[in-house]
Design a protein that fits this description.
The protein is mainly α. The chain is built from 5 helices and no strands.
């Protein structure tokens, strides 16, 4: 890694602390912990992985089309159960909110590095737009 000045390192650490102090970061950490510690989701993901391995095995050599289809159907059911689970939905919502926040911080840094105006004027003709 290139040498970075002490001043830059300290400033980055201050920025990281500000980001971590934002409620979106805290919400993401809480939601992620709930997701990784949820026993029902863990059970579903374990079965999902077992079914994936079974599908790979079923597709080796002479494929049993009925067995493979049954496994694919079960994989779809497991996937739906995970992505519709309230703990997963809370995690996804918190993750989306944090990543939108982090993207905004990154855009501000990029604007500052390139000498652009900081902040949004709500007139997209003054910049390259928000997205």
């Amino acid at each position: 890694m290139e040498n970075i000045s002490k001043e830059i390192t300290e400033t980055v650490n201050k920025l990281a602390a500000l980001i971590q102090a934002d409620p979106r970061y805290g919400a993401l950490m809480e939601a992620q912990k709930a997701y990784t510690e949820d026993a029902q989701i863990a059970k579903l993901l374990t079965e999902y992985n077992v079914q994936q391995a079974a599908l790979a095995q079923a597709c080796k050599g002479e494929e049993d089309a009925q067995l493979a289809e049954s496994i694919r159907r079960r994989l779809g059911e497991l996937y739906s159960q995970v992505v519709e689970h309230p703990v997963y939905l809370a995690y996804k919502e918190a993750s989306d909110a944090y990543h939108a926040f982090y993207q905004a911080v990154s855009q501000e840094l990029e604007l500052a590095l390139n000498g652009g105006q900081s902040g949004c004027t709500h007139d997209c003709s003054t910049c390259s737009g928000c997205h």
